[in-house]
Amino acid sequence: MSKQSQYELLLKQMQSLIVEGIPAEGNICNLLSLLKSEMNLFWVGLYMRTGEDTLGLGSFQGLPACTVIKFGKGVCGTTATKQETQIVDDVTLFPGYIACHAEAASEIVVPGFRDGKIHFVLDVDSAEKAAFDTVDKEYLERVVRMIEGIYAI
Ligand code: SME
């Protein structure tokens, strides 16, 4: 199955999992769990904006991770500052990379917004190098739109 087809199926499954009347975390953890298992990822999670220029660990699936990241630091902080998706083929080559897990080899981080301001970033890590391309960017940006919608319920 092509990566596009996998993502199309995944988005449909995600949509059918979202329910009203529960905390946002419940829906979001379900989506992240599905994303991690279906796409064979190492770690997936959200870093939430907790101050003017700080991100704090939010809902995630995988091993325990770094808890606080300043805007401009690492891939997540760079995404928050630039307000655009970052794809890193080899994390060892990214200046200022924050290594939460030795197993992570490549990474994609997508910004999420509320009222036009950064609200969170979706951080997705793979144990394989160069795991992410423009197809992942397109679909993970759609996943982020879904998560923005969950926070708005
Ligand atoms: N590697 C990230 C930090 C978060 S962990 O990957 C879960 C970064 O450089 O921002």
Describe the structure in your own words.
With 153 residues, this protein is an alpha+beta fold. The protein has a single domain (3-152), classed as GAF domain (Beta-Lactamase, 2-Layer Sandwich), CATH 3.30.450.40. It is built from four helices and six strands, in the order H-H-E-E-E-H-E-E-E-H. The protein has helices spanning 3-17, 24-38, 74-82, 134-152, and strands at residues 43-49, 54-61, 68-70, 86-88, 106-114, 117-126. The protein has a six-stranded antiparallel beta sheet, sandwiched between helices. A hairpin with a 6-residue loop joins strand 2 and strand 3. It is globular, with a radius of gyration of 14 Å. The termini are far apart. Methionine sulfoxide (SME) binds at residues 43, 65-66, 69, 74-77, 97-98, 100, 104, 107, 123, 125.
In short:
With 153 residues, this protein is an alpha+beta fold. The protein contains 4 helices and 6 strands; from the N terminus they run ααβββαβββα.
Mean pLDDT: 97
Number of helices: 4
Proportion of residues in helical segments:
25-40%
Q: Give the strand tally.
A: 6
Distance between the termini: 33 Å
List keywords for this structure.
153 residues; globular; 6-stranded antiparallel β-sheet; Beta-Lactamase; alpha+beta; binds methionine sulfoxide
List the SSEs and their pairings.
Elements: H1 3-17, H2 24-38, E1 43-49, E2 54-61, E3 68-70, H3 74-82, E4 86-88, E5 106-114, E6 117-126, H4 134-152
Antiparallel strand pairs: 1-2, 1-6, 2-3, 4-5, 5-6
Helix pairs in contact: 1-2, 1-4, 2-4
Bound molecules: methionine sulfoxide.
